[in-house]
Fold these 2 entries.
Entry 1:
Amino acid sequence: MAYLDKRLATGEAPLRREHQHWFVLAADARYAFIAWILAAAVWLLSGVLPEEIRSALGWIIVALVIGGLLYLGWQILRWQNEEFVVTSRRVLQTQGVINKQVVDSSLEKINDAILTESIFGRIFGFGDLEILTASESGISRLRMLRDADGFKRAMLDAKHELELELSGARPMPGPAIRTGPPAQPAPAPAAPAAEPAPKMSADEITRTLASLADLRDRGAISADEYEAKKADLLHRI
């Protein structure tokens, strides 16, 4: 992990890392197992052979055992140094024991991820994850990845967070808390004083009452409306 930390950008942080399943290690170390099987077969065969031949076969057995151990150790180092990492900016694949290689794909260029799990993969916890990006370069397929489903979720969550950061989306701040006394409502403006009704002469009032009585008789206004108008006119004398 120290090798990867030195190659992260400013502000970039690793979020999830995984290795391939140990089945991959067992498959890559098959020649070590074959060497040990051959060593066991030679040892059993040497029991029925002459002494001078057994001496030569002993060195062959030692070479097969030591060679198998060295080959297994090398494969373990390769398996440990090949890891897949989700950061806040990229998905990286690091590999190599002596000569290092780092392949990365930017999260913003990832369009989709296809997860494939066989029945054995669901039982033993591994799967293949195919990453579809907008460019031809970068990581394309993660084979026999441990907890591939969890790795996919971590990658999509990191992509979502990056998109929110790039778009500037942030939660709206809450309402400000007032610590002082509550503000008093502004006083309502005073209603303008009603203007007094203009005065009318006795002749004008008589003519108006006659017109109102004619409207009442023709049914244009009701008797109550007539009495109300009459009282109003009498107050203007």
Entry 2:
Amino acid sequence: MTVNILVVADSALVREAFVNLLSADNEIHVIGEASTGEEALEKARSLAPHMVLMDLPTQGTDSVAIVRQLVGEVPDVKVILVGAASDEDTFVEAMRAGARGYLLKNTKATEVLSAIRAVHKGASLVDPMMMTKVLAEFRRITEESGSQDGLAGLTETELSILRLLAAGASNKEVARKMGLANSTVKNKLTVLFSKIDVADRTQAAIFALKHGLVIDGS
């Protein structure tokens, strides 16, 4: 597996740090660098990277607009953002625009590499500190839309599991609250993810909140 990555950052020092980190991994190939939003879009269109690792903010074009254009114009590209915990508005809007990951600026080097591998394999990855923010945003959207579409074919057990995921429950907590073995929960999650066409717990929790599966009082 070789992951071709475009690195985007205003600061030359940050770009160099990212390039040095990524180049030390023999499964990752840095195919280009960009310092502005416009340059990032231009290089992504010509180089067609598997992934864009983008430090926020970038000069010029609005960061959310960059994400939206990258996802819309570059086939199968996955965007991971590196930002601050305080930048809630950009985080929420960027995830809605199609970003597949959001890491904080104090993320450890090994965790950055792990995130790249996970996202490349199809997962979505959000720093735990930010997860409550995205869940709150989708809960707000759900309350406004009241959407229940897309739930046909799910069993009552699967709906209950989704509600617990939306509330942030771990596998062990799901098992305890539903009186199931841990192995049973893992098997049910595998089937459930396939049914609703998601790759991981984060996407499943977002799906649950978008479809109104919220536990009262959670």
